[in-house]
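#help-structures

NK: newbie question. if I give both the sequence and a SMILES, will the prediction place the ligand too? trying with magnesium ion
OV: yes, paste both and it writes out the complex. here, I ran yours:
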Amino acid sequence: MESGRRGDGSVQAERAILAAVVLSSGDAGSGALDPLEELRALADSAGVRVVGELIQNRSGVDVRTCLGKGKVTELAAMAAELDAGTVIFDHELTPSQLRNIEKAISRKVLDRSELILDIFANRASTKAAQLQVEIAQLEYTAPRLRAMWSHLGQVTGGAPMGVGTRGPGEQQLEIDRRLVARRIVSLRRELAQVQARKAREVQARCAEHFTIGIVGYTNAGKSTLFNALTDGGAFANDQLFATLQTRTERWSFGGGNDAMLSDTVGFIQRLPHHLVASFRATLEETVHAHLLLVVVDASDSRAAAQLATVREVLESIGAATQPQIVVLNKIDRMAALAPHERAGVTSLEQWRATEPSAVAISAVTGVGIPELTEVARAAMLGELREAVVALELRDGRGVDFLESRAEVLSRTYTEESCTLRVRLARRHLDALVAMGSRCTVDGRPVHEGLLTLWPSAAPKAARRVPLHQRIVGDGG
Ligand SMILES: Nc1nc2c(ncn2[C@@H]2O[C@H](COP(=O)(O)OP(=O)(O)OP(=O)(O)O)[C@@H](O)[C@H]2O)c(=O)[nH]1
Ligand SMILES: [Mg+2]
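OV: that's the protein plus ligand as structure tokens.
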């Protein structure tokens, strides 16, 4: 069965031609000036050697062969001339389109989704990621594989014809089809166990800490920012999908306040939906995070479209309700752009109009990192209130907690008790309650005092900090 996976025929080091149809409706690809820019970057990340490119302007995609008939003939000649064994289309091809094109050009044909799957397959290093990728490959590739085999069976009588095309007869196909189905069931079962364990971990972390997820388009600089904010250790590289698994570290805000920060897999437009589904667990941290840092490569002319894509994906995984801080990254690169490069790039002034609370930074030079830290800290703490908290001295944990986390304005210690006038966050009082402290707040028992200070907040919802309430620089 293993031989049946087209994904096994990795495209690494293969000579390939990139092909795309640009629709006159303007709906094709990124809609940018260079329609193959993203596919080229994907091919580069997959280790492909791009030897040629072919673009056709059309009013629609050809239902049989994606490109028009004449262009397919041109493609065949081009592949022969450039000695390219593979053609990669910037579209999701139907199994029959794939079959028709392969038949016409006698070369291996991959679509954009398969290329992304191939990158993921080569990068996945944790058990969960490997399981997720294999399931997605089997589900996406299996019907295409069958289509290809059936026609190669006719063309070559089942003789081998290059990577991923060892074509067995119909009987073998039937056996393989059942093996694929059985393998998917067993992988799913294994993945469910890994996911359950992971979900428990994430839940425990969310209950104990304020959690922040870094999300954004692939290559936006998420891992670089993650490393700048924590002790680091995340792999950052100028390639698409450098990060495939989540990494979590402590982000310290100073004054004893910290959060757990997670770096995650990047998003991309037209992400294969099988992958979104199977990476749900990887994105578990994102779904449950109390706050999201949405990182944008502000030096990229497609930044606004990329931000829109990220928000769509967040919506689709159920992570659109948390407060978000938009982080405009790579402003050093933005400033260094030549005038002609700057033409299509959204300026910081324009961003200010559309995303007024965005924070501009450079994860590489560190510009804007203190501001970002302050905004995140304020979002975590929510609105600060002033209160008088009285604790028994026996309650050492409670006293230490307030002395180290809250801003103490004045303190009175007696032999048995301590009275602190503090500026504190609702989160601090939640923590005191959780610790079992029997302190009083403005003369009332702590849970009553809490509701008096923050009357609107329901007990559970308190974990979610509405961003519009955050006060930048307040309480310093
Ligand atoms: N000039 C400049 N380059 C940056 C900045 N932040 C990140 N980069 C570069 O952008 C590239 C991608 O950075 P990563 O941190 O790997 O990006 P990512 O969002 O984690 O990417 P994926 O994990 O692949 O989705 C690397 O070459 C970084 O050095 C920045 O502020 N300025
Ligand atoms: Mg990364």
